[in-house]
């Protein structure tokens, strides 16, 4: 509540500053003189804005806001633009709800820890709210777990070396407490909590097709097992359930890979079903709907939304066609809508 009050006071002072600038600009355009002591130039506007809002504002947004005021004071910018938030033009005159006008700048936080080197990119970011974890996986094999304790972040990084295969996605197993990453031909299970976390994990291989995405199926039970969904470059979606017993019973005698124990993929029951005629770009499980979604650039079977049981039978699935396919999607429980991007 105190943060909201402070923000409200800061916002009122900022709007007063903008009004003074507009009056000043109008007088100058009319030929009226403004004394140097009262004049609000860019440096004064920038320093005052930073004093009010702190690091929540960026130089680029301050410059853009100042330029808009000075170039056309009759059409003043909206205050959210100082934080880089821009509203779209709307034809209707309906007033926005109070909730849509709230901007919680205090929730913004930045992790400055560098987890990748040059010529490497982040391929997956997963947030685990219950564990206060944020997990990242880089293309070249750097797995990092950020553990938030208070206002600080502690990280545990591990480099999974592979000769040719790149990591394409990651997720988290809430029951087994493992980090999962998929490559073009393997599934990596990393026990980041182990004292020797750099060598305590498992690799499931080989996978026949190239794995492109992965997600966790969240359920209400607390059993010692977790289920993941994966999509590949041939349009297949896989269902894999992993238990703690698998780590003991299914170890292979094959050579080590980054000192991880190897599990033979043939020893697992991995139902799969071809749902798309092109790459599976993204897969996600919605616990509120008890359904999974998968998308592809396939124009015929662009987006599938159905029960995971459909991966084990041949019953028809609920699918939607979008020209040129779907690249991304998400679900909003409050609005009860699914949005896709092509």
TrEMBL record:
Give me the segments passing through the membrane. none
Supply the alphabetized keyword list.
Repeat
InterPro entries in the cross-refs = WD-EF-hand_domain (IPR051242), WD40/YVTN_repeat-like_dom_sf (IPR015943), WD40_repeat_dom_sf (IPR036322)
| Keyword Repeat appears in the UniProt entry | yes
Signal sequence: where? none
This protein's name = WDR64 protein
Q: State the organism of origin.
A: Hylia prasina
Give the gene name: Wdr64_0
């Amino acid at each position: 509540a105190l943060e909201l009050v402070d923000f409200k006071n800061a916002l009122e002072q900022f709007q007063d500053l903008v009004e003074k600038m507009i009056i000043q600009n109008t007088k100058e355009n009319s030929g009226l003189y403004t004394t140097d002591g009262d004049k609000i130039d860019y440096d004064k506007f920038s320093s005052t804005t930073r004093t009010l809002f702190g690091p929540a504002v960026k130089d680029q947004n301050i410059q853009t806001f100042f330029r808009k005021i000075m170039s056309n004071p009759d059409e003043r910018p909206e205050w959210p633009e100082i934080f880089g938030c821009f509203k779209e033009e709307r034809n209707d005159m309906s007033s926005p709800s109070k909730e849509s006008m709230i901007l919680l700048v205090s929730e913004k936080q930045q992790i400055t820890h560098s987890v990748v080197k040059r010529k490497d990119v982040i391929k997956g970011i997963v947030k685990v709210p219950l564990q206060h974890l944020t997990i990242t996986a880089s293309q070249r094999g750097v797995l990092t777990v950020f553990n938030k304790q208070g206002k600080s972040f502690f990280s545990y990084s591990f480099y999974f070396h592979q000769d040719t295969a790149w990591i394409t996605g990651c997720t988290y197993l809430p029951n087994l407490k493992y980090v999962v990453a998929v490559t073009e031909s393997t599934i990596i299970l990393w026990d980041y909590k182990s004292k020797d976390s750099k060598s305590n994990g498992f690799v499931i291989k080989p996978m026949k097709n190239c794995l492109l995405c992965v997600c966790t199926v969240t359920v209400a039970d607390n059993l010692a097992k977790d289920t993941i969904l994966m999509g590949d470059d041939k349009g297949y979606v896989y269902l894999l359930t992993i238990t703690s017993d698998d780590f003991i019973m299914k170890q292979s005698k094959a050579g080590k890979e980054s000192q991880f124990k190897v599990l033979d993929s043939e020893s697992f029951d991995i139902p799969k079903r071809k749902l798309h005629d092109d790459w599976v770009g993204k897969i996600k499980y919605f616990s509120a709907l008890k359904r999974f979604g998968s998308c592809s650039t396939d124009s015929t079977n662009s987006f599938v939304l159905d029960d995971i049981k459909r991966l084990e039978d041949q019953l028809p699935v609920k699918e939607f066609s979008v020209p040129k396919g779907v690249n991304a999607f998400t679900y909003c429980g409050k609005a009860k809508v699914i949005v896709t991007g092509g």
